[in-house]
Write a structure and sequence with these properties.
CATH architecture: Alpha-Beta Barrel
CATH topology: TIM Barrel
CATH superfamily: Protein of unknown function UPF0759
Strand order of the largest sheet: 6-5-4-3-2-1-10-9-7-8
Radius of gyration: 18 Å
CATH class: Alpha Beta
Distance between the termini: 32 Å
Structural class: alpha/beta
Shape: globular
Oligomer: single chain
Strand content: 15-25%
Largest sheet: 10 strands, mixed
Number of domains: 1
Length: 275
C-alpha cells in the first residue's frame, strides 16, 4: 500500500450536501471549500477542464484551505484535444504558470490530462508521444486514457520513462489496468453519468467497485510513495458517503464532519463559482 493515501472528491460546490450533513445547514456557498477542507485532505478541480482558473480564484483557494491541503486540476480540454500542436504546448506552459501560487504554497497536486474515449492508440500514438515530451518540468502529471487500445507495454514504457502517472479509472467502458508508471498513483472512481441531480443521497451501491480498487492500491500499488483517490458524485449519488466508504476500506479513520460556523455578513468575500 502507498505510504501516503489521500481520499478526496471531484468538486465541492454542492448545496445539497448541507441537508445530508457534509456541510452545516446554514453554510453559505462561499464557505464550502473551507468546510470541505476540514474533512478531506485533497480535491480534484474539474472546472479547469473548461477554462483555467483566474488568479483571484487561485488566491481564494489558497486562502480558504489549510497548509498541507492539495488541489489537483484537470488540464483544459482545448489543450488535450490537439496535444501535438504548438499552441497546445504554449497552453501547457501558461496553465502551469498560472498555478505557481499553489505550487509555492505546496498545495498543487497532480495535473490530470483526460483524453476522450475516441482517442485511440492506432491513430494517435504519435500525438500522445508529442504531448508527453512537451509537458513542463515541475508539476506532477497524470494522464487518463479511456480507450482499451492504450493498454499496451509501449504506453506504459512511454509514461514510465517520463515519470508520468497512468490514471487508474473506473469507467462505464471498463477498468484501467492497474499498472504503476510513476512513484505516485492517481485513481478516479467515476463510472457513468446515469445519475441525475441532486447529489445529496446515496442512490446505488458501488461498494464492490471500491473494494476492488482498495485491493489494487494494496497490491499493485504497494511500490508507490503516494496515492490520490478521487470519488465522483456519479459513483453512488453522494460523493462524501462514497469517500467515507473508501477511507474505511483503506483502514483510515472515519471522516470528521465540519462543525457549524458563524454567519458572515452578505458583503463578505465570495468564492468564484466554478463548480
Amino acid at each position: 500500500m502507498a505510504k501516503l493515501e489521500r481520499v478526496g472528491i471531484i468538486g465541492w460546490n454542492y448545496p445539497e450536501w448541507r441537508a445530508a450533513g457534509a456541510y452545516p445547514r446554514g453554510a453559505k456557498k462561499e464557505d464550502f471549500l473551507a468546510l470541505y477542507a476540514r474533512t478531506w485532505p485533497t480535491v480534484e478541480v474539474a472546472s479547469s477542464f473548461y477554462r483555467a482558473p483566474p488568479p483571484q480564484t487561485i488566491a481564494e483557494w489558497d486562502a480558504q484551505t489549510p497548509p498541507g491541503f492539495v488541489l489537483s486540476l484537470k488540464v483544459p480540454d482545448w489543450i488535450v484535444k490537439k496535444p501535438a500542436d504548438e499552441d497546445a504546448r504554449e497552453g501547457l506552459r501558461s496553465f502551469v504558470a498560472k498555478l505557481a501560487p499553489l505550487a509555492g504554497a505546496k498545495k498543487l497536486g497532480a495535473l490530470v490530462a483526460q483524453f476522450a474515449p475516441t482517442f485511440r492508440r492506432d491513430k494517435r500514438e504519435a500525438d500522445l508521444r508529442a504531448f508527453v515530451a512537451a509537458l513542463p518540468k515541475g508539476p506532477r502529471w497524470a494522464i487518463e486514457l479511456r480507450h482499451a487500445s492504450w493498454w499496451h507495454e509501449d504506453t506504459y514504457k512511454l509514461l514510465s520513462d517520463a515519470r508520468v502517472t497512468l490514471v487508474w479509472s473506473a469507467l462505464e467502458s471498463g477498468r484501467t489496468p492497474p499498472v504503476v508508471t510513476s512513484d505516485a498513483l492517481y485513481l478516479r472512481l467515476f463510472l457513468d453519468r446515469e445519475l441525475q441531480p441532486p447529489y445529496g443521497t446515496k442512490r446505488r451501491d458501488n461498494a464492490p467497485e471500491m473494494e476492488y480498487w482498495a485491493a489494487r492500491l494494496r497490491d499493485e500499488g504497494a511500490s508507490a510513495s503516494a496515492a490520490d483517490v478521487m470519488l465522483s458524485k456519479f459513483l453512488e449519488g453522494y460523493a462524501p458517503g462514497s469517500a467515507a466508504t473508501m477511507r474505511r476500506l483503506l483502514g483510515q479513520p472515519e471522516p470528521t464532519w465540519p462543525d457549524p460556523i458563524e454567519d458572515r455578513p452578505a458583503e463578505g468575500p465570495k468564492q468564484s463559482k466554478l463548480f
